[in-house]
Design goal:
The structure holds two protein chains of two kinds. Helix content of chain A is 35%, strand content 15%. In chain A, the strands form two sheets. Chain A has a five-stranded parallel beta sheet with strand order 7-6-5-8-9. Chain A has a four-stranded parallel beta sheet with strand order 2-1-3-4, sandwiched between helices. In chain A, strand 6, helix 7 and strand 7 form a beta-alpha-beta unit. By secondary structure, chain B is mostly beta strands. In chain B, the strands form three sheets. A five-stranded antiparallel beta sheet of chain B has the order 2-3-1-4-5, covered by helices on one side. In chain B, 30% of the residues are buried. Classes of the chains: A alpha/beta, B mainly beta. The interface between A and B is medium-sized, with 19 and 17 residues. The structure holds zinc ion (ZN). The site of zinc ion has 8 residues of chain B, from loops.
Amino acid sequence: MKFQGIISINDLSKKEILYILDVAKKIETGKTKPDLSGKVLSTLFFEPSTRTRFSFESAMNRLGGRVISMAEPKASSLAKGESLHDTVKVIERYADIIVIRHPQEGSARWAADSTKKPVINAGDGANQHPTQTLLDLYTIKKAQGKLNNLKVAMIGDLKYGRTVHSLTSALSLFNCQLFFVSPESLKMPEHILEDLKKKKIKYSEHEDPSKIINKLDILYATRIQKERFPDEAEYEKVKHAYVIDVSLLKNVKKNFRIMHPLPRVSEISTNVDGTPYAFYFEQAGFGIPVRQALLSLLLGKVK
Amino acid sequence: MRAYKVYAIKNGTVIDHIPQGRAFKVIDVLDLEEEKGIVTCGMNFESKRLGKKDVVKIENKELEPKEVNAITIVAPTATLNIIRNFKVAKKIKVKVPKVIEEIVECNNPNCITRNEKVPTKFYPISGHPLEIKCHYCERTISYEEITLL
Ligand SMILES: [Zn+2]
């Protein structure tokens, strides 16, 4: 399978997603050992996201490749008013593959259209972060042994959360039953629910996680950001209603797992960390094989 | 001499059945302000199909189907007649183009096309009513929300 770049999860078919996850598994288990020596990755981060950048850099390093990275966007050419297009036209001469994170929606697509070198989108504003979605799917598959017909809940800020929007659209390919748990003001946007209806995906909306938690295979928690609330009191109320604590987990299924894109603030109590249900640190770790797979595929080092 | 509302043209293109109030948008989309020949624009005609309609006539110029398709974005009901020697020589069906390039502005203020010189590009995702999706930020824009560049 051939990939030009990874810009949006919507570009990928079910078959392509499964293929990427399969390559990731082969790399993780050592069955495939792509050699990226002599290849240079450039990470262009126009807004800080140390975790994502480290994950890509670690993935590249572990396959023998090299990394050049623009660590300080403020000190870079962008601050001098250079266009993204021009930056990419220069960087493509320095690197074999480009990873970009940029605060404006559509920036990664524009970067990809500006160069023949493969581009990976590591987040374009509120739009897409496809490698996060792929690692989320990889994590679910690792936890449950499959992706089809699972019961998956998402909890927290479902209105603005890019991660849960992309995950919803990806899981709809696998006929999962979805549960959306959020305060009234942060519900899943209508156009996403409409889309699920069109695809005949079973879903339901809830305010209280305790009512459904015992049915679930996966609970995907996201951060509730203070900035999203008009007043402090409303935020405090909601913040406490959506804390996942051991007391909530008494009767969950044995295969139940909790995921979170991290960093967490107070959404998951630290007393959950020691339970067999905590899977968020593993999830962060799976970013490595998934990104190794993408780098190898895009550089033509895995067929 | 007969009384006329918009006189018949000898040769050229007649764009009929434009939704009321959208004639100027059609002129805009087709860049007719750059046109050297005579362009007439009629508004608020009676129409069986639309109630009221606008009409645009371009003399001595036959529009190509390719440039014509862009009209659907602002005037989905429009019909096109090529006139030769006062007679309708050809009727052209307008179709929504597969790619809509450099006509529409993205209405997401945080889209890269609004912040850097990027030629805009949209794909139609549904025809009736028209909905288009930004190639870059993936925002969906409905027919009523469409703004031209
Ligand atoms: Zn856009």
